[in-house]
Amino acid sequence: MRQIFYQFMLPGLVFQSVVIGGGYATGRELVEFFLTNGPLGGLLGLVVTTVLWSLILLLTFELARMTGALDYRAFFRHLLGRFWFLYEIPFFLLAFLILSVLGSAAGNIVSQSLGLPELFGIVGLMAAIAWLSFQKSTIIEKLMAGWAFVLYIAYSVLIIWGATAFHEEIFANFSAAPPPGNWFENGFKYATYNIAAIPAVLFALGHLENRKQAFGAGLLGGPLAILPAVFLFIVMVAFYPDINSTAVPLTHILGKLDVPWFSLVFQIVIFGTFIQTGTALIHMLNERIDHTLQEQNKKMPQNLRPVIALAVSGAAVFLAAKVGIIDLIAQGYGLLTWGFLAAYIVPIMTVGAYKIFLFSENDFPVTQQLEKIKNDD
């Protein structure tokens, strides 16, 4: 049973942990890409996102398993060849953007829930990410999976409570919903820029042993990652359309529920999710540097990892303070969609699929990283 969990569910749960902080934890992203198309159009857009996520996840997981490429640099060398670096350009911009959103949201949560200056939330987030950057991949993997279950419980309680308290408003707004707008386009855009986070999950694929497991984990990954978003979206519909102009819709909903203890607990859970997402992005960056140094027969100093974490997250928070969370999400994410479409989605659905179905794992040398992870286990 434990092995089944690690092979079929863990990759999807880690993907959820990576994507949720910068993807929909605050609810602002759900407004920007889904609720602007109305309640019904938003749900249709979420279906589009789920299908695309599952498709790219299963192709990515299988290619990574076959090639033994469990870090994004090795993976994109197999996928893009000499042009592997093209993925890094939009990814580092996106990672910086996500860290900016996380810093802004963390400060907002601490300010609204505890009445403390936003700086406390920002510094706390940065310190936690820096501390976790010291840890091994296996520890980070377990923390993400465990917190994902905590998150599911919190969102399940939210939708039960919210649907009970606001069921009349939810049904009324769904019934009076305007015709769906650009739901397919927006669902596609949202899925595309979030797909960029999939390579941050590669370190958790060392348990996959065959194609059935890789495809199964990929198919499950889409629904596992999107389900909390669906829960939050349904509750948000109760406050449509006014909630569209709210910077952090989640705190607005919790305020309407008017249950202080649940609001505090839920926001602690969300804060923990921010830490997970930020840690995954920084860990990916640190692993990239570490593997580059290893190729040069050098070793990355362990104390450099938290330094990088603090430097990158600090610069990102500075950006958030200058721009603001609404503008960051509205303008930044959409611009990066095309970069990931060209550098990841099109290649994985063409070159990647070609290698998956016409080659076998025997045609690819297993990387030292895969062997290392299996030995650690």
Give structural notes.
- With 377 residues, the chain is mainly α.
- The protein has one domain (9-376): Amino acid/polyamine transporter I, CATH 1.20.1740.10.
- The protein has 14 helices and no strands.
- It has helices at 2-23, 28-33, 38-67, 72-80, 88-114, 118-132, 137-175, 183-195, 211-236, 249-257, 260-295, 304-323, 325-358, 368-376.
- Helix 1 (2-23) crosses helix 9 (211-236), helix 7 (137-175) packs across helix 11 (260-295) and helix 8 crosses helix 13 (325-358).
- The radius of gyration is 20 Å and the shape is globular.
- The chain starts with a helix and ends with a helix.
Task: Note the topology.
Blueprint: H1 2-23, H2 28-33, H3 38-67, H4 72-80, H5 88-114, H6 118-132, H7 137-175, H8 183-195, H9 211-236, H10 249-257, H11 260-295, H12 304-323, H13 325-358, H14 368-376
Helix pairs in contact: 1-7, 1-9, 1-11, 3-8, 3-9, 3-13, 5-6, 5-11, 5-12, 5-13, 6-11, 6-12, 7-9, 7-11, 8-13, 10-11, 11-12
